[in-house]
Automatic annotation (TrEMBL):
The chain crosses the membrane at residues 81-108. Homotetramer. Its cofactor is pyridoxal 5'-phosphate. Its EC number is 2.5.1.-. The modification N6-(pyridoxal phosphate)lysine is found at residue 218. Belongs to the trans-sulfuration enzymes family. MetZ subfamily. GO terms for biological process: 'de novo' L-methionine biosynthetic process; homocysteine biosynthetic process; transsulfuration. It comes from Ideonella dechloratans. This is O-succinylhomoserine sulfhydrylase. GO terms for molecular function: carbon-sulfur lyase activity; pyridoxal phosphate binding; transferase activity, transferring alkyl or aryl (other than methyl) groups. Keywords: Amino-acid biosynthesis, Membrane, Methionine biosynthesis, Pyridoxal phosphate, Transferase, Transmembrane, Transmembrane helix.
Length: 409
């Protein structure tokens, strides 16, 4: 059989760096030679003849046929993200939750078991625990930081370990290499949700993770414009296990959203460094404020996994800082936290993160509001907790904004 005809790649010198890849990976330009990537808003693609169509549908020739399967703009985004993560493959999805759905549908079947950190994003707990639970996939939720709990939760039918690091909103850091070892010793896969660091700071594949989950909605877009997601991993597994599900299930990313994320990734490295530096300054300021009981930020020496975080995250803490106000009862804590949010005049009161605009939110009543009180307690999300996703605002304006609320408590 002749070699399968593949789509061409961008020609870059061997070994170019992360920042260059973030700007240039993708498909070669069209015949017009555009320097900025084109946006291909087309649902289908025309074949030169019927025999070519047949070959393309039989998967004997790699080409674009229908945008539910693939699209040039979406593929450019996929290739760029894979290059940044250091994986051979990537498949884009309509949202970050769509990425986790595609991963689970592609890898798991009824009777399989998943071990997942209990500190992951609230919707992830709902999706794995409740939704996939209804389809016969059981999940055990364990400590984010105690590898022994992961090992103890393993069963003969455990197929997938799912972690997120740092977590939302408490920024707990897990040891990716240690979890990869637990997974691989049992013949299971490790998936890591890399939203908070992005590949600019952390490449989970380097520490042994098999699959990397992204919400492109966050730092990849970086300016709070679109919903998008992706799974990165070995090309062979993406082709054999995820793509067939994507073709049938249609969790597809729109070309327009892919284009926004693609252009966002061009500034990812500088944004992540600048926002991390701002976040560290804000975290240090918060730690010194008398109305603050505790600050959660991996870049602070007081963070329980500070050393591990610095090792895994290129020496930076990323841009999310959470802190707890002081108070005696849940009611009082909530009132104090609400007072800080409501005093903000610069920070946007919104639950999104990853934006260049600093955002402030109250996880217990918003992003984690759908969890039961018991699940919330287990995840350590108290009523006094406030999450800041630090952007590119002047640090002095962010701290002045927080002082308006904190000084009044
Ligand atoms: C936002 C987020 C998701 C979900 O992404 P969507 O694009 O909103 O579906 C998953 N994991 C983490 C850590 C997130 O912050």
């Amino acid at each position: 059989m002749s070699e399968k005809k593949r789509l061409p790649r961008v020609e870059l010198p061997e070994g170019v760096g992360l920042s260059t890849r973030a700007l240039r990976e993708g498909l070669p330009p069209s015949q017009w030679g555009e320097n900025s990537e084109a946006l291909y808003l087309t649902s289908s693609f025309v074949y030169p003849d019927a025999a070519t169509a047949a070959r393309r549908f039989a998967d004997e020739e790699e080409a674009f046929t229908y945008s539910r399967f693939s699209n040039p703009t979406v593929m450019m985004m996929e290739r760029r993200l894979a290059a940044l993560e250091g994986t051979s493959g990537c498949i884009a999805t309509a949202s970050g939750m769509g990425a986790i759905t595609l991963l689970a549908m592609g890898l798991l079947r009824a009777g399989d078991h998943v071990v997942c950190s209990r500190s992951v994003f609230g919707s992830t707990i709902k999706l794995l625990g409740d939704v996939f639970g209804r389809f016969g996939v059981e999940s055990t939720f364990v400590s984010q930081t105690d590898v022994g709990e992961w090992r103890a939760a393993m069963r003969p039918n455990t197929r997938l370990l799912f972690a997120e690091s740092p977590t939302n909103p408490l920024t707990e850091v897990c040891d990716i290499a240690a979890l990869a070892e637990v997974a691989h010793a049992a013949g299971a896969w490790l998936a890591v949700d890399n939203c908070f660091c992005s590949p600019a700071l952390q490449q989970p594949a380097k520490w042994g993770a098999d699959f990397i989950i992204h919400s492109g909605t966050k730092y990849l877009d970086g300016q709070g414009r679109v919903i998008a997601g992706a799974v990165c991993g070995p090309e062979e597994l993406i082709q054999s296990k995820l793509l067939p599900v994507q073709r049938s299930a249609g969790l597809t990313l729109s070309p327009f959203n892919a284009w926004v994320v693609l252009k966002g990734m061009e500034t990812l490295v500088v944004r992540m460094k600048a926002q991390s530096a701002n976040a560290l300054a804000v975290a240090q300021w918060l730690e010194a404020h008398p109305a603050v009981a505790r600050v959660h930020y991996p870049g602070l020496a007081s963070h329980p996994q500070h050393a591990l975080a610095m090792k895994q995250q290129s020496g930076l803490g990323a841009a999310v800082v959470s802190f707890e106000v002081k108070g005696d009862s849940p009611e009082q804590l909530r009132a104090q936290a609400f007072a800080v949010l409501d005093a903000a005049q610069v920070c946007s009161r919104t639950t999104n993160l990853g934006d260049t605009k600093t955002t402030i939110s109250h996880p217990a009543t918003t992003s984690h509001g759908r969890l039961s009180e018991a699940q919330r307690q287990a995840a350590g999300i108290g009523q006094g907790l406030i999450r800041l996703a630090v952007g590119l605002d002047d640090v002095a304006d962010i701290t002045a904004d927080l002082a308006r609320g904190l000084d009044s408590l």
